[in-house]
Specification:
heterodimer, A: mainly alpha, three-stranded antiparallel β-sheet, 3 strands, B: seven-stranded mixed β-sheet, four-stranded antiparallel β-sheet, 15% strand, globular
Chain lengths: 494, 636
Amino acid sequence: MSAQALRNARGAFAAIRNPVDLYWIVREGALLAASYDDDPLKSPAKVTQPAWDAVRHALESKWGPPIPKASEICRRLRDHGGASYPWYELLETVFTDGVSFAQHHAQRRSQPDRTLSDDRVYWAANRVAAFLQVRTLRPSTYDAGREQLLEQPGLSQRSREAMAKALPNANQLTAYCGGSWDRALEIAKLEPRSALSPAREAVPRAKALAFFFLAHGYVPSQNQLELFACREDFALQAPSEAWEETCSQGVELIKAQGLPEPNPYPSKIPPDGWEPVTLDLSGLPARQRRGQSRLQALESAYTFKLDLASGETPTDARYKAFALGKKDISSLNVINRFGGLAVLLREVARPDWREQATLEQDAAEQEARELRAAEKGAAGARQPATRKPRQRDPRSPLKFLLKLRNDGPCANRELRETLGVSRMSVCNIFHGLKERGFVEATEQTSKSPHQRYTLTVAGREALEDVPALRELLASPPCTADSESEAGAPENEAS
Amino acid sequence: MQGTLAPNFDFRNALLLVAIQFVLYFVSGERPSDGRGMMTRPKPTLTRLANGAATMADHLRGALRRELIPSAEERPRQRVSFEGTQLWHLPEAGRFKKDAELTALPLIREFRQQLASQLLNELITGSDDEFADWDSPKRGRPPLEGDWAALYLAYVASKCVVVEDFHRNLQKGKLLHPLAEACGFTDIPSRQAIDAHFVELEKHADAFIEVARELIRRAKREDPRIGEVVFLDSTRWSSAAALEHACEDLDACFAHGGKKMARARKALAPEIDELHQRDGGAVEPDIDLYAASIDGTRGPIVTRMSQRGALKYRSFFIKAHGLPHRWLSRDLSSGVRYYEDERVFWLGGYAQAARDMYTGLDLAVSVFPNDVCEWDGYPETYKQMVAALGERPRVVSVDRGFVNRPFYEYNARRGVAVVGPFRERKPKEKLEDRRTDAVDEHGVPRCAYCGGPGDRISPGLGPAFNQAGEPYIAFRCLLQHTHDCRKKQKILCSTDWVQLALLAQEAELFHAVRHAHHNKESGFNADRRRYAVAGKEGLGRVCRSGSGVHRLRCAAAHLLNWFRFSLRQGLIDPVELEVERNLSEPELRSEVRDPLTPGVGTDRLNELLRYRDEHELDLPYGAPAEHLRRAYEEVA
């Protein structure tokens, strides 16, 4: 490291050193100077600059030449304002335990926090409000307006810097105003911001049911109602109660409007006096879009590109300001999801970008449809393969008859428990035995009305010869499909 | 009319032309141009000495006010931009101490072998034009062969201030004897002859300056950075003559403090410095009132008989205790300033120098008595400077003494930016008291529509001249609160010549020049050490009285400095001298290049910016701001 190489353009020595090293150099030099002092108890923190300068060359072996003088070190460790580090304060710092020199130096060099004033708040808020032509501001609106102001074309670099300085951001204003944006508005003599408008609520299901009735004349099923909401593009509330209750509320609502009462569900016959109504449901809150397509993002980027003035560079900040408050423009997040502004702008520079994007979107939709269909098809093919025909136990009718003979008339539930089959299976067995004249059903009119199965005389006789009866019962084979096709006994208690 | 005659040469026309030129020469005193662009012989400035009351510097009195408006040729016709102007410094350019070969003897030897010496003699003798030989031959003994101008340069270079001592040292076997030989003298001239010739040379001080200008022009051609930024200041010199209280009406004199006046004495050099500092630290003067206060002491030249015959004295009338007391001095051309409180006077004058901040050498020097104000000497210095550079300087840096509105106006009208410190206009005035609706305390113009700060630094903005030749500052609002703010606005510099100086205080160059100003003060002391110019008292003061001798000495020192500089920079090829070239690279001092070498004005600029932050000068204020505030609130 030659001395010549360390000279700067002015010919002065100016070795480039890490400032943190200078702190260590000062510390070691002070320790060395204190050890050479006549006073054996000399504190290193009290070493004078001449004494330090006298030993500085001894540090060159470790830190490399040239070691600057103490005054030069103080100058190099100057603070943000350019004031040299006072020598004894510097010594105190280097001998204070636990001080991180890097952090300490960074703090000294950092720009002090700007102090705002009411005047600055006033001019900043009014400048942005006047630019946006509004009488009140929200922090986000202020920041967006500020961005737009700083990005507007025709400003010189100096003007841009001056405006950035004169317009603190919303966080700074809020911090100055004790954390209250409303206080900032008060200082700026702007109107207080209005309370947040409640989110537009989705349409209650009972009301939607009434709309359905107006259009179609009957009470829909849940699926029908949801399809209706989807087709008409309005937001439908999630179900929060039993469907019957929703239906009754809907019917009440219809009746309250003086419309004819609909026939009970599931009747699809319109009531007398019903006239079809053509509904305009565009005023209802729209369904939330779950995602935006690449074509929409491209369209947004293209619109943004057209909006740019000549010479303006498309930046994320500009796009953010441009997209603010525009419903049909994708947000910057969406743009970034599709590769970022630069990528999309490159794409829209191609002459056939729109056709290409449409084709791509169609292809993607087609693919998605095929995928869904394939999933559905796969699900449909598996079902018959997994459902195997259940074989009826040939002993069940015999057990049925034996149960009636032994226990007398039985209800379906009792037989079900004995036979270990379902209610429908008991019914099927009953119908099979009834055709043969072995059993009959008797109506019970008690607290809970139900049928009880009893054995007939023919049935008792048949039980005399059990092997013959077994053969007889086994002759017409019976499957589960045929069981299901058979209807359940009416008015069976659920 | 040189060379061989053409075959169809018309003798009648040629004779007529010569006759006309001859008549013009005697009628107007102006030499006809030879049409070859040759260097013309300068005319002595001693113009009117009819009644003995005028001096060489009388034309300077009130010159600043008189010459405030520039001629059409002097007036800049385009926008004045400081975009490419930077503060450069050429290290070691003006330090001749290390060069042993550039001491008096080798220097004069080398000088005599250069064309500059020939040019100097031609200018002095007037042999550079065709009328030189027309003078009738003089009677008497043939003049002593030798180069008197070179001898005078040797006299200055050897730091002698007394001719007797110089003459003594020229004798054989003495230290300076080789100098006489080097100047072409076979015999040593007598002291009287030296004295007489040196006095004669006082009339030709301009010749020395003209040769120095030639060297400056050559240097400027090589390096255009010379003369861009100029330091301007004056140093004081004292006359060797005494001042004698000589009231004619003794009764009236005694009745009005005559005894006290008799005890008045010459001020010592430190006293003059202190009093001068006090004057400079006072509030900004009205230059006309100030000139009137220091003028008026000078009286007519009177003759008194003595043992040596009739002697001429300059009379001065110093008013004290209600009576103008008469004082007499043998110095006919110096001025007197009397400080009543201290009861001391200063008999002498100023040597004003325009010093190049790049090389550290003077571009122009003017000498005038102290009853002429410092700023009144500036037009002369400015003209010399422009003549030397061939163009106007870009920036002139001055101290507090020059800060007054006419001085700024003089420069602004010529497109020269003045960099000077803040000077109070009334007692205890603060910087922020200068804040107006039109311009703030740092000379930043304010927007007429919102009261915000204006931008006068960006390209296309800044100082310019309208069709009437009035300088103005074009600016654009930085904040642009209203639509009108986007317009380019103009403010005439005449609104406040000092505040609306051509170079913006927000430019780093301004502060770099302010910083460098103090370093250039030492140039006067360096010249005192080298050439004993502008002596104040004691051994360093020239024994001959009068401002002419100081003027000649300063001119000779000026020439020697530039001759040495030209040799060291390689602008002149030395004939026999071996000169060590100055190989230092120019340094840029006014620009931030890297963290270790910021511009020298950066700290001052940061200080200014901090002040502006603290006082919120980046926000609108004043009547336009109030108007805008009302508009905002009305909309609400």
